[in-house]
Amino acid sequence: MYVCICNGVTDHDIRSAAEAGCRTVTELTMRTGAGANCGSCLDMAASLLDAAHAVRELPFPVMQEAA
Question: Which residue numbers delimit the BFD-like [2Fe-2S]-binding domain (predicted)?
């Protein structure tokens, strides 16, 4: 879905930026252009960026080596 209509930024673009190491909305704006014009998409962009980091940072259980 389009998050930023002004600059044609999609939710996929935001997730890709997060996977590439984007940590803040300011950095997201620099990388993708989201929010650079009218700014009405910034709340949604921030939510998607936070959600992408939450999924990425889920802890995985550590498996013990077999004896």
Answer: 2-50
Tokens of 24: 């803040």
Taking alpha carbons only, the member of 2, 1, 4 closest to residue 41 is: 4
Give dist(CA 18, CA 65) in Å, integer: 32
Q: How far is CA 32 from CA 12, 15, 41, 43, 57, in A?
A: 11, 11, 12, 15, 22
> What's the chain's length in residues?
67
In the three-class reduction of DSSP (H, G, I as helix; E, B as strand; rest coil), residue 50 is classed as: helix
Instruction: Count the alpha carbons within 13 Å of 7 in the hemisphere toward its beta carbon.
Output: 21
Residue recorded with tokens 């998050």: 3
Q: pTM, whole model, 2 decimals? A: 0.80
**Of 32, 51, 44, residue with least CA distance to 3:** 44
